[in-house]
Design goal:
Elements lengths: L1 H18 L5 H29 L8 H32 L3 H6 L4 H30 L1 H9 L4 H27 L5 H15 L11 H8 L2 H14 L18 H33 L9
Helix pairs in contact: 1-5, 2-3, 2-5, 3-5, 3-7, 3-8, 3-10, 5-6, 5-7, 7-8, 7-10, 7-11, 10-11
Length: 292
């Protein structure tokens, strides 16, 4: 146990240094502000364009909805899809994956540590993103200030969500162990599907019914709904278009569903990782370089 904690700590430190490219914390903080905020501002421009084109029929509550959703989804991209990039960069760029596997360090714990670095990066990015939104847009200040942030539910959804994102990331990272050429394309493709179906930019209630069921099968849908409620409260009656299939669910129901789906995801991730790890070692995939 002591050795695994040491591996976890050192892997998190290594992951943070690799992500920051050994830059100073202040210089990296500027990058962490610019990257997520520019993505959110693009959505804000789309919101105002849609509102202008429809003569103001798009409700003002839509702006904080998509801004907060997009800020939270930054954690999904950073943690879940970042772990698969860690496999690719360690194998293709630094060519150290095989040596990490052969070292006394626990292989799975090493990637758990890399995931912790991603969690820190994603959390700081999301907080800075929301802070900039509060500074620039009055609709954001009104949405987060009307009911106040529910810190208890925020902590619950954030804690369960981090475990869920890590498990999803380990599934993708496990698959990348055996995908020497197309691993990064797998992550990018799944990222787009999850972004579309989890209700990030628009509520899943506007999608066709059968697509809604696909979205409801994703744990990220429940997590984003819970994060929005913890930060902004329930959807106001003045914006019925934002009410999706989960609008009538209570916070405990959302949290329980998220917890059960996360538990199932963690169990599958542990099995899937071990299976891919053994297969990658047997076929020599850990040292296979595709030159990408």
């Amino acid at each position: 146990m002591r050795e695994q904690l040491r591996t976890l700590r050192l892997a998190a430190w290594l992951g943070w240094q690799l992500e920051t490219n050994w830059a100073s914390p202040w210089l990296f903080a500027i990058y962490m502000v610019i990257k997520p905020v520019t993505g959110s501002l693009m959505l804000v421009c789309m919101f105002y364009a849609a509102r202008y084109a429809t003569g103001g029929k798009v409700p003002a509550e839509f702006l904080p909805y998509l801004y907060v959703s997009n800020a939270c989804f930054g954690l999904v991209g950073t943690v879940t899809f970042g772990l698969s990039y860690a496999v690719i960069t360690d194998r293709e760029r630094y060519r150290m994956l095989k040596y990490v596997f052969l070292s006394p360090a626990h292989f799975q714990t090493y990637f758990a540590g890399r995931g912790l670095a991603r969690v820190a990066e994603g959390t700081v990015g999301a907080v800075l993103n929301i802070a900039v939104g509060l500074l620039l847009f009055s609709d954001m200040r009104q949405a987060l200030g009307t009911t106040g942030i529910d810190w208890l539910w925020l902590a619950v959804f954030l804690a369960v969500g981090v475990v869920m994102l890590w498990a999803a990331g380990m599934i993708l990272a496990g698959a990348c162990l055996n995908l020497s050429r197309n691993g990064m394309f797998l992550s990018e493709g799944i990222s787009g599907v999850v972004y579309l179906l989890s209700g990030v930019v628009f509520p899943i209630g506007v999608l066709p019914v059968w697509v809604q069921w696909v979205g409801l099968s994703l744990p990220t849908t429940y997590w984003l709904e819970g994060m929005r409620r913890a930060l902004m409260g329930p959807v106001p009656d003045s914006a019925p278009i934002l009410r999706g299939p989960l609008a009538t669910w209570s916070n405990p129901e959302l949290a329980l569903t998220l917890l059960l789906t996360t538990a199932a995801l963690v169990a599958f991730a542990l099995w899937f990782w071990r299976w891919n790890e053994r297969r990658a070692w047997r076929l020599g995939k850990l040292e296979e370089n595709a030159g990408v």
